[in-house]
Amino acid sequence: MAQRRSARRTVETVASGTAELVPDPDRDTAWTLLLDGAPQSHVDLADPTHLEFEYIRRMASAIDLAAPAGQPLRVLHLGGGALTLPRYVAATRPGSAQRVVEIDGPLVEMVRRELPLPERAGIRVRVADARAAVEGMRDAGYDVVILDVFAGSRTPAHLASAEFAQQAARVLAPAGMLIANVADGPPLKYARAQVATIRAALPEACLVADAGVLRGRRFGNLVVVAGRIAPPVAELSRRAAGDWFPGRVETDLDRFTGGVAPVPDATAVPSPLPPDNLFSNRK
């Protein structure tokens, strides 16, 4: 069993700000990674299938449904953090070939040192800008592409455009699945534009989120599941409804986007800043 490396909080300056690894008081081998005070990842070294954050559980549900249980996958993770989902895939789908692209080299080194990966996990980490890395990749190389990139608390504009979505779709296998984390709040202007932008490249899609977030009542995470074939809506709905914090699946994305056009590079913007008090009660 994995053991806690230290009971102390680790604080370091990394390229993207101040990184903290905070011990979880409820789980002896678990840690939360914060960047400039915002929770980015939660990892239990002894149980990588324990997923603390609800949006990560929604993304993991989509991964679970991307292929029969246990079948290895080729997975591209854009955004690394503490490597929560790569560890999850390695545990649930042994033999998977995974590549992680994370721009913050000092953060990668900190995570590798303090939260070491299991041996023979099949996880390769590349320090690079996500878009530049994707543009250099071969066509149809991945079964799953996970987009969860944040600079501080915002997704950069160059990863929120139609041109980038086309590149992400290009490296996805014909029956592959894109899973994107979109953070937004009322009136969901950014989320509507992001859904339209992703659907222009991968038209078969749905959204998974808390009902209050989907209705534009509060800030939160919306998970986009998209591809060239229909997503597994029934099973995603069942899993979302049965979560610790129940969510729902939205399939009427024409209504959700309300005619918003895909966003080109020329007008792309970063995701909105979260409210100041959003993380005040998070571990």
UniProtKB/TrEMBL annotation:
Residues covered by region (Disordered): 264-283
Gene3D superfamilies in alphabetical order: Vaccinia Virus protein VP39 (3.40.50.150)
InterPro entries: SAM-dependent_MTases_sf
Keyword Transmembrane helix: no
Alphabetized UniProt keyword annotations: Polyamine biosynthesis
Keyword Nucleotidyltransferase carried by entry: no
Coiled coil (UniProt feature): none
Protein name, entry field: Spermine synthase
Taxonomic lineage from the root: Bacteria, Bacillati, Actinomycetota, Actinomycetes, Micromonosporales
